Amino acid sequence: MKHSIKKLAAGTALVLGALSAFAAEPIKIGSVLSVTGPAAFLGDPELKTLQLYVAELNKKGGVLGRPLELVHYDDGSDANKANSFAKRLLEDDKVDLLLGGTTTGATMSMVPLAEKSGTPFISLAGAVVIVEPVKKFVFKTPHTDRMAAEKVFEDMKKRGISKVALLAETSGFGQSGKKETEGVAAKYGITLVASETYGPKDTDMSPQLTKIKTTPGIQAVFIFGLGQGPAIATKNYKQLGVNLPLYHAHGVASEEFIKLAGPSAEGVRLPAAALLVAGKLPDSDPQKAVALGYSKAFEEKWKTDVSTFGGHAYDGLMIAVDAIKRANSTDKAKVRDALETTKGYVGTSGIVNMSPSDHMGLDLSAFRMLEVKNGDWTIAQ
After folding, report:
1. Mean of pLDDT values over 74-82
2. Domain 2-143+289-362 falls in which CATH fold?
């Protein structure tokens, strides 16, 4: 009888402990993502990832004995809406931290608000301008556009390619990518012999690709964009019978790109996070366990393919949680300081080592060069 009473008391204590933890004030994670619109295939897996892991963390007792609360808005791939929603998150919802900005445009519209309010902000967008120059409260998880251009040119150089045509999107990501591509080309002995642009909502890039095709001396084509546009361009490329190596930036690093481009994607190369080829990594790779664990959890929960974009959200949330734990507080200045001292975090994007001069913490080794073979991502040889 006494034994039963002890067990009952222990069980009651556990329940009361859990209840008291969740009676605590929640830690509010504010998020603005492009769940609909042209950037939806980036924003949708980002939101699904945050929902999945906020629930998982809460099942384990939350963070610092407090539940996490995700407050999220969909900007519809509109940077102006992102600004309005960020303002709402900061002023009305009183969030402790901002996580999101699917696109560079959305992120940059939110940056002044985060800086002015002194709120830590982890972006999920690509352009280098987000973290260069360094902004006190702004961090990011994806590799930069400059790194993408460098990784692509590194691969081209190995293949003896030196004359390249660039097709860039007129979005914030595409234009920053164009600028960075132009800036690093000479370093790798690359000459850009043609340069064209297209709009994020364009449905046919044949005119630009026809110009590129008829430019003498081109050895390869590099497309810098995100969302559905690059898949359309890839189809147009094959329809026009261009038989040159085709490269993309990391803005299309998901199974969705292969589905949209279909057989036209065969042979496409791009730099991406290890996540897309998690099962093909050697067992000795420190990212393998993390990438496989995330892939399994995401695919089981949502019954859909994993993407590097969801991985960026996973890294953003886990880096934030780690910083809150190390700060032992949600005090914004303390969390900011902890974010800046993130060291040795093994994520889906790479191994992150931040510093006062580097608010991303990834180097070029965090990128893998991938190639589409038989309708699947493989590690390029």
Report:
1. 97
2. Rossmann fold (3.40.50)
Tokens 């073979």 correspond to what residue? 373
Place of tokens 């890294």: 315
CA–CA distances in Å: residue 34 to residues 81, 163, 173: 10, 35, 14
Query: For the CA atoms of 22, 24, 29, 30, what is the dihedral angle to 10 degrees?
Result: 110
Task: Specify the domain boundaries for CATH 3.40.50.2300 within the chain.
Answer: 2-143+289-362, 145-272
The pLDDT of residue 367 is above 80: yes
CB atoms under 10 Å from CB of 325, counted, come to 12
Beta strand 191-198 with 351-352 is unpaired
Label each residue of 43-74 as H, E or C.
HHHHHHHHHHHHHHHHHCCCECCECEEEEEEE
Overall residue count recorded for the chain in this entry: 381
Give the three-class secondary structure for 133. Answer: coil
Domain 145-272: CATH superfamily, name plus number: Response regulator (3.40.50.2300)
Task: Provide the token pair at 349.
Answer: 């994007």
C-beta atoms surrounding 195 within 10 Å: 18
